[in-house]
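Annex B. Sample input.
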Amino acid sequence: MRAASGRLLAVPDLGEIQRGDARGAPRTREEPDCDRCFGTGMEVVAGRGARKCACRQSDLRRRLFEQARVPRRHGGCALSNYQPAADNASQMLAFKQAYRLVREYPAIERGLLFAGPVGVGKTHLAVAILRGLAEKGMPGLFCEYGSLLREIQDSYNPVSRTSETSVLAPVYEAEVLVLDELGASKPTEWVLDTMTHIVGRRYNDKRLTIFTTNYTDERQSAFSETLQDRVGARLRSRLYEMCNTVLIEGEDYRRRPGGLN
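Annex B, continued. Sample output.
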């Protein structure tokens, strides 16, 4: 299998990832104290003394994912429970790209742009990347495109308790950012300038960004819009540099028996 860049990807079988999914499920209730450190955070190793207990690392990884501000609806998304439709090569390639990024990070120079119609698993894979990186101790942040723009606009309100700086600082500084539904808002001049500035800032700081969008570079009909129509030529050009574009095809999973993939 070749990526958009033409390079061969070496990844394990999807089934191997799915069978080891114990780490992918979020906690739903408080768990008892660790039977190694009994809640102290330090475990005693015979002949070696005390060391930091592995349970503390597990708690850290859980907190990192929680701090990513992933919406509850997507909170259970993981690479281990991503299920491509049968015989869908584009979804399998998208999974392999996501897995490769998590495996090789931080030795990764480009992010990913998942593009395709609604309901093909783009957000699932983007969130799964955040979860996988949290497992490696790497913090990340999830932002929905339209919601972020509204937050910025609300900060201009004189009675608002937030400022544009306080809204944008986490977006600028996140080690890994997922920007979901790119192009979803009407492309006004303010929207285009704001998003070009945000993406440009992350580009200059060499910070990894994962995008999802329902728009592609091909016009599907005389009345449809391309990604460039929605984000502008300048930002689309920057995205080519920042990300490998991964096209995902398929039917809307919400219409399939069993729901979310």
